[in-house]
Each structure stands twice: as C-alpha cells, then as structure tokens.
Amino acid sequence: MNCTQPDEAGDFIIAVDPAPHSLGHQFAVHAATETGWMGGDSAIAIELAGHERLWLFSDTMLAGGRWVHNCIVVEDLARRGLRTVLGGTPSEPEALVPPLNSVGPDGLSRWLWAGHGIAIDDPAIPAAQHRAWVFFQEYRATAPDAVKGEWDFAWVRTILVELSLPDLRVLSRTPVNDETGVQWGAAVHRDGDQLLVYGVADEGEHKHLLLASTSATQPGRRWRYWTVDGWSPRPGEATRLLTGVSNEISVVPLPGPESGWLLVTSDTRREFGTWPIVAYRADSPGGPWSGPHMLLAPPENAGTRYAYNPTLLRLADDSFLLAYNVNSTYADVMADRSIYRPRFWRVRISARPPVET
Questions:
Q1: Contact at 8 Å (CB) between 133 and 120?
Q2: Does a structural domain hold residue 149?
Q3: Fewest C-beta atoms under 10 Å: which of 105, 125, 288, 357?
Q4: The total number of structural domains that make up the chain
C-alpha cells in the first residue's frame, strides 16, 4: 500500500509507507509469548526521557482468555523489547488503573478506559518526582454483567490519573468535574508550561471537538477553555471546533517553522465500519481546521471488522508513526486473536515546495 495525499491547500504532503511498520510484528511476537498482553485497543504512546515508551491500552486480552479494562505495555527502544504492566497478581491479573468504585450506585459495574497523557520526567527533575499524567474515561454498564452485550455501556466522567515513574504505581485519581459533559483527554500536547487538552462531546453519531488548557506539571489545576473569543476560565463558554472526530485522536505541530498544526482522526461522519483516517490542518491549536484530507483508508474495514481511533507519534524530522485499532464481533476476535491488535504505519509529512511562477 502506498498512499500519498497532498493537502488541497498546498501546505503539506502526506505519504504512507508501502508496508506496515515493524512495531506490529514486535507486538505479535510479544503476544506469542502468552505471558501478558495478547491484544488490545487504544494504543496511545507516551514518550519517556530515557530509552522507553509507554503504550496505553484499554480493553486488553490476556493469555488464558482473561480480559482487563486497561494496562500499559512498556517498549524498550534500545533492546526492541516489550513487557506488560498490569494490576492484581500474576495469577489474578487486574486492570492497572481500577476505578474509584468498581460498582456504581445503580449496582452496575464500572471501569476505566485509557486516554492520552504525558510524562514529566526531565532529568533535571528529581527522580522521586517523575510522573505520568494520564486521562482515563470512566464507563458504566447499562445492564447487569450476566446479560450485558458488547455495546451495553455509557460514559460517566473523565478521571485524571497520576502514575509514578518508572514503576507505574497509581498515586492519585482526580475526577474532572467541570459539568461540560466532555470526554477530556482525547488528545494532549505539551506546549511549554501549558498542556493542551482536547476533548470530545460524544453525541453518538455526532462527535464534536473542544479544547482546554492547564498546567503541564500539575494538570489538575486552573483549567481554561477555548471559546470564540479566546481562553476563558468558564467551562460553559467552551466552543465546538470540529465535528466528525473520533474519541481518540492526535494533534501535533507540523515539522518546520510556522507550519501549523495537524489533527489526525477517523472520519466519523461516514458510516460506522467504513471510517477512513483523515487529517486536518490549522495555523493554531484551536483552529480553524481545514480538511479533511485523506491519510489512509484502513484495509481492515470489511465485513464485521472495523478500524478506529488513530493516533500519531512524532519519530524524527518529518517521520511519524500512525497507530490505529481494529476490532470485530467478540466471536470473530476469539476465533482469530490477531484481529484485536493495533496496526502501525510510518507516515512522512513534509511541507510542499512553493509553486514557481
């Protein structure tokens, strides 16, 4: 596969490598050991200051047919190795980050699915203060576990979780109670001392993008919200920036000085199961966003299988790593466990040369 799609405004060129990235093979090898992670969705990366990268997963399949609602896979960049970090015990594994209460006041189960996050682990900071801050989404079942179907769940709230580094202990859980109904942490980006936090107002078929900011080192403090007039401390003034995004996206600066910002998402305006991965561009992190421009039509979108929730990780210069999830019916996944694993592609994004006249 080779997909090269110039931005119609002439600002940049996107090119996807013809073959998948080797990280997919590394995850397949890791799954074959049957010692931890066998498959999962989300696949959200957090870069650490050393030679490691954290991959955050939501629902995760483990060896022996076990499932947990979240975990972290640590990638050793120097040795090209992976290891799974879970909660519980080796004989009784559990989610790494459980909810504050596993059963809600309605008597139905609750759990946390991973969102985006950042690491605060600069070598100048004392090691005891190194942290990962991750946004999780708390969900509840809408039916008792004994009869619950695959889609019987509803969003409750966003939880900001503080994890120690490098041992990934849960230090704190802070609910984001701003009454906006927004799932914050769909994407994050550190911009100096500021943390840009993108959220999604999920109305089912219509998903809307919003933007807030907070402290990069203490992200639970002093939130501001992007409005039609700029930043405001009042949550009710947050404005919708874009419609048709997925629940997990990426927003990153484009390579080169003053090249603007790139947003990568599934195009959820299309019929479910056919979503292409598209890109939008803006001069500022709050938009306005131009697009969508085709990035990749996932080949997995066929039959009962579907691709969703793409993310983009900067590798070097104009090179990025695109990851996205693939899923199907529960029966299909259990019959072929390779379905429920992320796909990876290297993407090159470069400024388009000016047209000579």
A1: yes
A2: no
A3: 357
A4: 1
